[in-house]
Amino acid sequence: KPAYDRRFGLNSWNSGGKVPLGLKRKGLRIVVTGGAGFVGSHLVDRLIERGDSVIVVDNFFTGRKENVMHHFGNPRFELIRHDVVEPLLLEVDQIYHLACPASPVHYKFNPVKTIISFPTTIYLLTNQLVKRSWPTCCCGQLTEAVDNWSGGQHSLINWPGYRTVSLSVGQAVTSPRLLGLTRMHKTNVVGTLNMLGLAKRIGARFLLTSTSEVYGDPLQHPQVETYWGNVNPIGVRSCYDEGKRTAETLTMDYHRGAGVEVRIARIFNTYGPRMCIDDGRVVSNFVAQALRKEPMTVYGDGKQTRSFQYVSDLVEGLMRLMEGEHVGPFNLGNPGEFTMLELAKVVQETIDPAAKIEYRPNTEDDPHKRKPDITKAKDLLGWQPKVSLQKGLPLMVSDFRKRIFGDHKEEGA
Ligand code: NAD
Ligand code: UDP
Ligand code: UDP
């Protein structure tokens, strides 16, 4: 066996074959930023299972301790509350950089209006939705506020490190929106810069989880990695799209300029258990709505398309990418393409054939279609998704059912 070279992580052990041997190896020290989130926590499960030591770095902005709680007490697991916008000193072999407020809820219409300013944090929600959504909402650090909110009118939100704010339900907050977006951008740009600085200093391999949103409203279909995209640089989604594009640029600059070993994944819409229930993404919205016997909200005419990938397929792809020889970028997504109306139909078939559909105006700059070309990942990583929407959705539904209704079964379910 060749000597293990820390600078190159597992690279020196790789056979160069289609199935990286590294997938089976054990005993690495790995940081997962955003590891308490949806995708991150599933990745952590796989890494721990493989025998690695995992440090999760998360500020619980959209992640939850519950997602990784089952590893507490394991000496190979560590959880650090930290915002990647601040520098971080650690010694590890690999960095999976997932930290990012990934849901578009901050800048798209959503019944739960989560408006955030920085460094003062203000959450403004409609009274009716507060009680229902917060206990299940991703903002773990805010669950305390739920109790305070039970009066229905006021709440004190106490988020460690932030100023405590008192507000009335429905109270207007002076233009916090822009500040919230700055925060998204900051995480993508400054956060990624810090993690690259860390990777450079310790010679760790760095994997960026970028997004299919870098293709914007694509003029090429399906999207190939060589396509440069069609992104509005000043639109409401730009903080995410352009933030990730900058993160990709930084990643390549550190690779070319400082010799950092990097990997870039462009992730297409992913769903599965532990997804945030009320974060406004379409699969979680439809599933939660159908379970609660509410109409599924279809934005626009519902003919826009997306490709939905089950989370275990994504995690497999991320690990293959990290252990493989290729920088990327690689599209990681399921090429099955669905209109939102077709998705609603699958949700009806899975949960409740009587579930209704309600049309809502669509949001600004919503991409009309999206579908990955995954030829590159197939050829170079030996990867392709295995779980169809029809197979994956029920796995997510049972998790949502438990989280929404507790251990009790929904009436009539
Ligand atoms: P998520 O919101 O569940 O997880 C993101 C995690 O990052 C959360 O735990 C959050 O608390 C943490 N975080 C956010 N800002 C942070 C900061 N400044 N410092 C430390 N931690 C911070 O989202 P996810 O769906 O698991 O997404 C994970 C990654 O994959 C993101 O980078 C996202 O952009 C990317 N991605 C996801 C999808 C998808 O469909 N799920 C699609 C494309 C790209
Ligand atoms: N950084 C970090 N941890 C480290 C090394 C660097 O968080 O172990 C941060 C550092 O604070 C800086 C960023 O990463 O803001 C970029 O670091 P780099 O050394 O590339 O740039 P420089 O500090 O020279 O500007
Ligand atoms: N969408 C919808 N109803 C919802 C939420 C989203 O019809 O309740 C649509 C949205 O307009 C978009 C698609 O579903 O066309 C995917 O939205 P999502 O926010 O999940 O992901 P993204 O736009 O980032 O791909």
From TrEMBL:
Q: Mind naming one GO cellular-component term on file for this protein? A: cytoplasm
Q: Which GO terms describe its biological process?
A: D-xylose metabolic process; UDP-D-xylose biosynthetic process
Keywords, in A-Z order? Decarboxylase, Lyase, Membrane, NAD, Transmembrane, Transmembrane helix
Give start and end of each NAD(P)-binding domain: 32-115, 184-394
Q: Which GO terms describe its molecular function?
A: NAD+ binding; UDP-glucuronate decarboxylase activity
UniProt-recorded name of the protein: UDP-glucuronate decarboxylase
Q: Which family does it belong to?
A: Belongs to the NAD(P)-dependent epimerase/dehydratase family. UDP-glucuronic acid decarboxylase subfamily.
What pathway does this protein act in?
A: Nucleotide-sugar biosynthesis; UDP-alpha-D-xylose biosynthesis; UDP-alpha-D-xylose from UDP-alpha-D-glucuronate: step 1/1
- Protein EC: 4.1.1.35
Q: Which cofactor does it need?
A: NAD(+)
